[in-house]
Amino acid sequence: MKRFWWARLVAPLGLLVVWTCAWLVQGCGPGPGYGMRSRTRKLTAMHYKQFSPNFSENNIGASGRAEGKITRNSERFNQLVCNYNPDIVFKDEENTSADRFMTKRCKDCLNRLAIAVMNQWPGVHLRVTEAWDEDGHHPQGSLHYEGRAVDITTDDRETEKYGLLAQLAVEAGFDWVYYESKHHVHCSVKSDKSEAVERGGCFPGCARVTLAGGMQKTLSSLAPGDRVLALSETGQIVYSQVLVFLHQVKESRSTFLSLDTEDGQRLVVTPHHLVFLVPDCRHDGRGYQAWFASRAKTGDCVLISTESGQTRPSQIVSVSVTDSVGVYAPLTEAGTLFVDGVLVSSYALLEDHRLAHWAFGPLRLLYSLNRLLWGETMTTGVKTIDYKKACTETATCYSTLTTKDNADIYENNYILNKQDNLSKPLVMKIQKKHALQRQTDVHWYARLLYRVACIFLDFNLSNS
Length: 464
Description:
Layout: H1 5-25, E1 51-52, E2 81-82, E3 88-90, E4 101-102, H2 104-120, E5 126-130, E6 149-154, H3 162-171, E7 176-181, E8 184-188, H4 195-198, E9 208-210, E10 216-218, E11 227-231, E12 237-261, E13 266-269, E14 273-278, E15 289-292, E16 301-305, E17 311-332, E18 336-339, E19 342-348, H5 353-359, H6 361-374, H7 394-397, E20 399-401, H8 407-410, H9 413-416, H10 424-440, H11 444-456
Parallel strand pairs: 3-5
Antiparallel strand pairs: 1-7, 2-4, 5-6, 6-8, 7-8, 9-10, 11-12, 12-13, 12-17, 14-15, 14-16, 14-19, 16-17, 17-20, 18-19
């Protein structure tokens, strides 16, 4: 019987409508605690002189290296935006509006923080005492010179609130927060053009998942249709099918966070990928929640899989920065998977696993219907490279970076280092082509969601 193109669309669209209506009534998501309403996180005030994440400000895992001072006469000055948010009090002691100038990423984080402050303390507003510095009042290399840093207080200047204000800044998405002084909190962000901001959450090609039967496979050799160890909506260990790769870059060298546990697991992941953990291993009945990997610190607990098919907590004993080859983000039907034995989400950028799982519902439905109706597995059409032979030992996959920011070593190195004799225009053309190729390796649906979020939520989705 001849299949008409419109017949292929009727069933998927009909089920999509039913699924959407069902969500409006029920609205549940997967993972630990499935079926329960999200609990409001209990915020813990930061201590004086504490900073988060636990790296130096210019480390890759935090706000990254300085890119140079911006003056009013420089071209980069046009990249700064002016923040006229009426819910924020700007000190502006110079009377030049300098404190209102900042990068777009910094502005977005600051605006979210302003809302959080008003919700936490009704009638109180966020106050900015210092943002972009054009007068040289800070040490050389300060991110204030680039509009990437702000010093903040509350407008009532009650210093006992500043510890909680710092934690609210972490929640608002600042890449580095430092309770620097009894009189203010220092916050900073990554560069708007930073590769870590543009990229989603991923794992290196050497990371391993477990297939049915117990065999392990590297992400670089994983393919849509494979079934991998995951956690179901009811909290049971299952084998969930890989539908597609949301992000897949095979040969690029990238920087990751490395979370090492007391049981010997080592999860290597980008900072803004979601990992299920409990801060300080507190077991107070709230269960494990999905947090950005950048929030993980020594003493927190992650969930690991056991040989008996169960899960149990394992404490993180160290957090470091590593570099490796390839970036992979597999989407499973369950929305979760175990990578190198540690439970993680399939999602990144948005620190809400349930919301992300719902947002990717239509994509999961499309792939499921295609398999159900036509018995086909949709693939990305990208041939994967098997790094298994090259990654027989963990040491060959990852190299740990020192606290010194080494980002300049890796920026386009695998192209430019081999072609140092090329003319500058040709080098720029190669860089542009390489950047375009990496962009196309992000799944179209993920790019679509990013655009929608930016338009309708005014939400700058930061990366790993």
